[in-house]
Structures are given as C-alpha cells and as structure tokens.
Amino acid sequence: MVLKDKVALITGAASGIGKEIAIEYAKAGAKVVIADLALDAAKAAAEEINKSGGTAMAVAMNVVDEAQVDKGIADAVAAYGTLDILISNAGIQIIAPIVDSTLENWRKMLAIHLDGAYLTTRAAMRAMIKAGKGGSIIYMGSVHSHEASPLKAPYVTAKHGLIGLAKVVAKEGAKDKIRSNVICPGFVRTPLVEKQIPEQARELNISEEDVIKKVMLKDTVDGEFTTTADVAQTAVFLAAFPTNALTGGRWMKRPP
Ligand code: NAD
Fold first, then answer.
1. Mind listing the pLDDT tens digit for each residue in 116-130?
2. How far is the CA of 16 from the centre of ligand 1 (A)?
3. Is the CB–ligand 1 distance for residue 185 below 6 Å?
4. Which of 166, 160, 161, 162 is nearest to 148 (CA)?
5. Model confidence pTM above 0.90
6. CATH number of 7-187+226-252
7. Which end of the chain has fewer CB atoms at under 10 Å, N or C?
8. Is 80 among the residues known to form the active site?
9. Cα(158) to centroid of ligand 1, in Å?
C-alpha cells in the first residue's frame, strides 16, 4: 500500500493507460479521481474500483476548459480533503502529413496535450501549495517526447513540450516539495493505438501487420508492445518515491 491515503487525480482515466493507472493506484491505497471528457465511462471505471474495495470518484473534465479543470480539482479536494498526485494523461492522436494537415487539427492536438497539461498543473500546484504537503505531478509523455515519426507533427511537438513544462515545474515546485516527472512509453495497444493502425496503413500504403512490425515496434529493444501494466507500475513508483531526488526526469522503456 505504497500510496495509502494519497489522493490522485488522473485525467483521461476512463480508458487505456489512465484507467490502468487508476486501478493500480487504488490497489496501492490511493483515493482516485477519474477526470475525463467521457463521464459515463469515467463513472463506470470509478464504480469498478469501488466494487473491488478501492476508493474512487469520477469528475467531468475537458482538460482544455479552464473552468472545468479548476472545478474538477476543487471537487477532488472537497471530496477527499487534499490532492497529492496529478497524472496529466488525457490525450488523442490525429495523423496526417504536415502538407495535408489542418490548422484546426494542429490547434486541437496542442490544446489537449499542452493547454490541458498546463491548466491541470496550475490548479494542482495551487491546491498542493495551499495544503503545504508537497506533491507529485506526472505527465504522460511518449517515446515521441524524444523521437520523431512521420505523420505526427503536432503529437511529437506537444510530447516534446511536456518535457519543458516538467522541467519548469521541477524548479518552481521544489521549494514546496512538488516533484514532476514524465513517463515516456513506447506503443501500448489502447483504443488510441488501435485506431491508428489502419490509418497509418492507409497513409503509408502498407499492411496493418507491417504498421505494427515495421513502424510501431521497429526500433524497440525487444519487438514488444509496452503494456498498460508497465506504465502503471512506473506511475506507482514515481508517485511513491519518498524524496525530492527524482524530479524533472523522463522515465520508461524506449527504443535505443
Ligand atoms: P485512450 O484513447 O485509451 O484514452 C484516452 C482518454 O483520454 C480517453 O478516456 C478520452 O476520453 C480522454 N480524453 C481525450 N480528450 C480529452 C479531453 N480533452 N479532456 C479529458 N479527457 C480527454 O488513450 P491512451 O493510449 O490510454 O492514451 C493516454 C495517454 O498516453 C495520452 O496522452 C497518449 O498520448 C499517451 N501515450 C499513449 C501511448 C500508446 O501507445 N497508447 C504511448 C505513449 C503515450
């Protein structure tokens, strides 16, 4: 129970990686707030956790909406008394070559990944500073926080940007014992990735099998997908780490 009685708000936790982190955090003793655009799915995820003996609640949150973010964090603090951990995880993927892409989609991608990270960080830091107990802020970066792929200009740009934000949070947060880290997973088979397998096959004019083997897993050390469990374990480790020594860092399996 390494996160016993810690309060964690996880954005985008109604599905995929965020949901797995919510489940693992609850098992580790945390009270979990599932913040998602998809409220019904968020409620279902919270119910699943509560039924299996954990403690969770759902809040409606579009991470690009300032008022909804502030309210979601305030509701979490009102329900569970404090906020110790923020996982900024909500994200989407839109693939297109730059020359065929639209400004609208560019802005949408940057808003969800960067405005969302900024707004949740600001609200969480304010709550953590007020409580005076420190805290841990974890961003869901990606292998694309370090590497580039064709067809993913806004995603790669945003995921690189999260590293900059995390470094600033590490510096500004240090005096209040607020740590920040970025988890940078390789490809994980969630709905976000399942959707892009046929899309990439079409764009690159190759089979779906080749998208998996020759694009997604090509540069990994072992030819394997990362799993939601791999990411969730990393998120537990980072949030439970007892000192300020791990801050401003980037963690996870990635290609060499
Ligand atoms: P997913 O599609 O399974 O889950 C994403 C969740 O985010 C959904 O529940 C969705 O409703 C929510 N969401 C989307 N837009 C939102 C918004 N504006 N406000 C609030 N919630 C919103 O995807 P996933 O693969 O679990 O992705 C989670 C994060 O992990 C993303 O940031 C993604 O970029 C990152 N990531 C994924 C992979 C991968 O291979 N799947 C690898 C590295 C990083």
1. 999 999 999 999 999
2. 7
3. yes
4. 160
5. yes
6. 3.40.50.720
7. C
8. no
9. 13
